[in-house]
Here is the input.
Amino acid sequence: WLYCDELALLELKLAIGLMFIETRYQITKIF
Here is the structure.
């Protein structure tokens, strides 16, 4: 099950990273 946990963690990191990039893009668009 370790593989499954690592895969879920990677997916979570990817989602957070995407959200962070999107937020930064929105901020740069505002200013």
